[in-house]
Amino acid sequence: MSSLIKISPSILSADFSKLGNEVISLEKAGADYIHIDVMDGHFVPNLTIGPEVIKKLRPLTKKTFDVHLMISPVDNFIKDFADAGSDIITFHPEATSDVSKTIKLIKNQNKKVGISLKPKSEIKLIKDYLSEIDLVLIMSVEPGFGGQKFMPEVLEKTKAIRKLINEKKLSVDVEIDGGINFENCSKAKDAGANILVSGSTIFKENKGDLKKNIEILRNN
Ligand code: DX5
Ligand code: ZN
Description:
Elements: E1 6-9, H1 19-28, E2 33-39, H2 51-57, E3 64-70, H3 78-83, E4 88-91, H4 99-108, E5 112-117, E6 135-139, H5 154-167, E7 173-177, H6 185-190, E8 195-198, H7 200-204, H8 210-219
Parallel strand pairs: 1-8, 2-3, 3-4, 4-5, 5-6, 6-7, 7-8
The protein binds D-xylitol-5-phosphate and zinc ion.
Residues 10, 12-13, 35, 37, 68, 141, 143-144, 146-148, 177-180, 197-201 line the site of D-xylitol-5-phosphate.
């Protein structure tokens, strides 16, 4: 089972003054994906990076860029993030007036589509779109900041989504994001998540030993 688990380190906890080197280090340390948190100071109360930074990082690694858009309205930026080199583009249903249209916009760019649920967002927001998407991103903290405490109540929602996906025989990834650490990672996997995002645990535990931290999250 654990060999099917993918680890997607969030560069939100990286040293932004040497972001390129941090991405190269994550690849060497065994990261499967690179999780890139995009925030607009409007959909969430924080600001991070835009497509120009992703474009500059793109030549440094072949790893999948797992781009988590916390921006609203999202549609007008999809082409920019696709052109910059995103591989998976994930949006929040609350950030668009037409979820189907946003899914199509991403697919038209030949990118994988993810939809993200905030801790209090209900499954019904995305249920009807499961057969059209590649990934569900379950937020286990309120989006906006790294280093927050994991909200165990989202595990039930994770289980329910995994059950729906399996019942419909779909191959949709379930990714969990926020407060993932060495203790709760096994609970997230047991609930049905097959991709784990982690920022602070990967960059800060064991004096920042990226390889060791990725391995523990993968195998615990
Ligand atoms: C929060 C972001 C997460 C966050 C994860 O809005 O979506 O990706 O950076 O960081 P940790 O692992 O520190 O909670
Ligand atoms: Zn994220």
